[in-house]
Amino acid sequence: MELSSLIVPNNKKHFVVVFIGLVLIFKIALITAANEKSQIYTVHLGERQHDDPNVVTESHHDILGPLLGSKKASHESMIYSYRHGFSGFAAKLTSSQARELSGHPDVVRVTRSKNMKLKTTRVSDYLGLTSAAPTGLLHETDMGSEAIVGILDSGIWPDSKSFNDNGLGPIPARWKGKCVSAEAFNASSCNRKLIGAMYYSKGLESKYNGSFNAAEKGEVMSPLDKIGHGTHCASTAVGSFVPDANVLGLAQGTARGSAPRAHIASYKVCWNNEECFTPDIVKAIDHAIRDGVDVLSLSLGSEVPVDFEVDRDDFAIAAFHAVMKGIPVVCAGGNDGPEKETISNVAPWLITVAATTMDREYFTPITLGNNITLLGQEGLYIGEEVGFTDLLFYDDVTREDMEAGKPTGKILLFFQRANFEDDFAAYAKSKGAVGVIIATQPTDSIDASTVDIAIAYVDNELGMDILLYIQTTKSPIAKISPTKTFVGRPLATKVARFSSRGPNSLSPAILKPDIAAPGSGILAAVPTGGGYDFMSGTSMSTPVVSGIVALLRKKRPDWSPAAIRSALVTTALQTDPSGEPIAAEGSPRKLADPFDYGGGLVNPVKVADPGLVYDMGHDEYVHYLCSAGYDNTSISKLLGEIYTCPTPIPSMLDVNMPSITIPYLSEEITITRTVTNVGPVGSVYKAVIQAPQGINLQVSPETLEFGSNTNKTTFTVKVSTTHRANTDYLFGSLTWADNEGHNVRIPLSVRTRVFNFKI
C-alpha cells in the first residue's frame, strides 16, 4: 500500500514530463515544417491516360491540390505540366510533401531537380559523308531534306550563316512547333532552316527564387544563344553549306553539318554555360515529342555516380517515352576520361557517344638552335613568328630575376604543375617574355590563346627533349612559328583523352558508350568573332551522330531507335578511314576497346545497309527493367499498363543489345540474342568468332538463313572461361557475315570472376 502510494505521484510526474515533451516536439515539428525550404521536384506519372493535354494538366492539379490544400496552391506550386509525350509535372515542394506525394497510387517516382552539365569541317569528308558523291546516304536522302533534329542545349544564334535556308524546301506540314519572340530574339529570324526556337527557364528561376539576373550572368531570357555551345552543336548536326569557314585563317573550307538540308528545332534548356535543370529539360522533351522532331540531340549529362533510370533520372524517364514513340535520343557520353567507369547517359534506350580525334591537326613549329624542329600541339598561335631568341628554363630563373625582368625578349620553357594557379602565359608576358613553351599532359582539345604572346604546347616527352637541349647547350635559343594546319595521313585517329570511358557503373552488362565520332577540334558556328570556332568534347561528337541518325530516319523510316543504334554499332570501324588501328589516349595510350568507343568509329558509308539488326522495343525494354530490379508497380506506371515481371526474373545478359558484356563469368552460361534481317530475302549468314583470350565461345546455330517467311531468328552463345584466377575485362567480337559484303559485328567484353567479390 505504501509502495503504491509512492509510485502514483512519480507516474504523474512522468506523465507531465512526457506530455510537455510531446508538445515541444510537436511545436518544433511545426516550426521545422514552416521553415522547411521548398525545392523543385519532378513527379513522374508514366504514360498519359488522356489524349487531351488540358485534361492531363487538370489531372495533375487533382493530385497536387489535396496535398497543398487547394487548387490555387497547386497552380502556384506547379511550374511545368508534362502532358504531350507523357504525364507528369514539376512543382515546388518541401521534402516532406515530396515524400507524401511519392505514396500516391498514381505516382511512379518523385525526384528532386538536379543540374546537368553541357559536355563540351572536316568531319563529314573524314567520315566519307561527301556531298559530291553520286551515291551514298547523303545523296539518297537529299542531304536530310524534311528531317527535323531537336537540339536541347544553350539556344541558337539565328544570324549564323550556317542556318541559311538556301535551297531548302518548305517546312514539313507535320511540324507543330514554333519560334517565340523574347529578349533580343525575334521569331521572324526563324526560316525554313531554323523552324523552332523555344526556351525553358522555370526550373532555373525557381532555383534562384525568381531573382536570376540574366544580364549579370551574360544571358538573355530568350532562345538566343549567348555562349555558343548550342549554336556549335546545331551547326555540327545540320548546318547548311558555308564556304570559306575558318578561324583566323586556319582550317579554311566549306562548313556543313552531317545532314545539311535537315531542319533545326532549338530548345534552350542550358544557361550561363553550366546550369541545365532537369524540369526544364523534361518539359523541352515533352514539347519536342508534341512538335514532331525526328531525332533528339542532347550534348549534356550528369556525373558519376549516375542516377538509376526509373528511380531518380528524370531525363532518362522522359527519353524513354520519346524512344517508345519512335524518336531516337542521342546523348553525350561525358568528358571525364580517361578514367574508367566515368561514362554517363547509360540507359539502354539512349544512343551514347564517345569522342575521337580525326586526320586534321594543328601544329605550332618550335625550332631550336640546333635546327631541330619540334611540333607543338593543341594550342593555336596565330600571331607573328618570334625569331630566334634566348631560351630559358623557368625553374632556373629565380623569383628575383623574374621580377627584375630577366625573361624580357626571351622564350620560357615551363612544365605545367597543379600548384601553379595562374595563367602562365599571362604571367610570363607580364615579366617581358615574348614566348612560352608549356609542357603538359595532352588533353586532345584545341584552344586559341587569349594572351598576346607566342605560345606552344608540347607533351612532357618533348618537353624533356627541349630541357635536355637547354642543359647541354651554352647559349640555347629557339623560335616559335604560327600554327599550321595538317590534314590526312600520317595522322591516326585516337579516342580523345577527355572522352568518358566504360564500363557502365550502373548496369555493367549494358555496354556504354555505343559509338564514337570526331569530337576534338571541331570547327562550327558560334555567335562571336568570325562566326566560327573550335570546340572539343563529347558535346561535339554527339551532333555528328545526331545528323547521321537524321539521315537514317529519312532512308529507313520504319526502323526503330534500337534498330538505328544497332546499325551504328555493327557497321562501325575499328580502324580509322586510312586503315590504321584506333588508339585510346590515356596513361598509357593503348589500342581502343569497347569501353573506349563502343562498336567503334561511326561509319556513315555502311550504316544504312547493315544486313541484320539487333532490334528492341516494348518487350525488350521491360526485360531490362525487370532484370535491373525495378518493381512491378513502377514499371506498370511507367508503361501506362499493368505489367508483372516473369518468374524467374530474366537475365540482363539476354537484353537484346548489339553487344555482349559479361561482368562476372565463373561457370558456363548461355546468352540469347535475336537478329532481324533488313537485307535481301534469302540471305545466309555464318558466324565468325574472335574470342577473348582464354574464353570459349560456342554459337548455335552457326548459320542463319532468312527466307521469304523468316526475317527474324534467335541464336545462343555458350560462354566459359579457362582462367583459374580473376581477370580484368578481355575483348573479342562476334560477326555474322554473308556473301554480299555484310559483316554484322558486335563487341564482346568478358571478365572472369572465379572468386566474386560481390557479396
From TrEMBL:
<dbReference type="InterPro" id="IPR022398">
    <property type="entry name" value="Peptidase_S8_His-AS"/>
</dbReference>
<keyword id="KW-0378">Hydrolase</keyword>
<dbReference type="InterPro" id="IPR010259">
    <property type="entry name" value="S8pro/Inhibitor_I9"/>
</dbReference>
<dbReference type="Pfam" id="PF05922">
    <property type="entry name" value="Inhibitor_I9"/>
</dbReference>
<feature type="domain" description="Subtilisin-like protease fibronectin type-III">
    <location>
        <begin position="654"/>
        <end position="750"/>
    </location>
</feature>
<dbReference type="InterPro" id="IPR041469">
    <property type="entry name" value="Subtilisin-like_FN3"/>
</dbReference>
<dbReference type="InterPro" id="IPR034197">
    <property type="entry name" value="Peptidases_S8_3"/>
</dbReference>
<feature type="active site" description="Charge relay system">
    <location>
        <position position="539"/>
    </location>
</feature>
<feature type="domain" description="Peptidase S8/S53">
    <location>
        <begin position="144"/>
        <end position="575"/>
    </location>
</feature>
<dbReference type="GO" id="GO:0006508">
    <property type="term" value="P:proteolysis"/>
</dbReference>
<dbReference type="GO" id="GO:0004252">
    <property type="term" value="F:serine-type endopeptidase activity"/>
</dbReference>
<feature type="domain" description="Inhibitor I9">
    <location>
        <begin position="41"/>
        <end position="118"/>
    </location>
</feature>
<dbReference type="InterPro" id="IPR045051">
    <property type="entry name" value="SBT"/>
</dbReference>
<keyword id="KW-0645">Protease</keyword>
<feature type="active site" description="Charge relay system">
    <location>
        <position position="153"/>
    </location>
</feature>
<keyword id="KW-0472">Membrane</keyword>
<protein>
    <submittedName>
        <fullName>Peptidase S8/S53 domain superfamily</fullName>
    </submittedName>
</protein>
<keyword id="KW-1133">Transmembrane helix</keyword>
<feature type="transmembrane region" description="Helical">
    <location>
        <begin position="15"/>
        <end position="34"/>
    </location>
</feature>
<keyword id="KW-0720">Serine protease</keyword>
<keyword id="KW-0325">Glycoprotein</keyword>
<dbReference type="Pfam" id="PF17766">
    <property type="entry name" value="fn3_6"/>
</dbReference>
<dbReference type="InterPro" id="IPR023828">
    <property type="entry name" value="Peptidase_S8_Ser-AS"/>
</dbReference>
<dbReference type="InterPro" id="IPR015500">
    <property type="entry name" value="Peptidase_S8_subtilisin-rel"/>
</dbReference>
<dbReference type="InterPro" id="IPR037045">
    <property type="entry name" value="S8pro/Inhibitor_I9_sf"/>
</dbReference>
<dbReference type="InterPro" id="IPR036852">
    <property type="entry name" value="Peptidase_S8/S53_dom_sf"/>
</dbReference>
<dbReference type="InterPro" id="IPR000209">
    <property type="entry name" value="Peptidase_S8/S53_dom"/>
</dbReference>
<comment type="similarity">
    <text>Belongs to the peptidase S8 family.</text>
</comment>
<keyword id="KW-0732">Signal</keyword>
<feature type="active site" description="Charge relay system">
    <location>
        <position position="229"/>
    </location>
</feature>
<dbReference type="Pfam" id="PF00082">
    <property type="entry name" value="Peptidase_S8"/>
</dbReference>
<keyword id="KW-0812">Transmembrane</keyword>
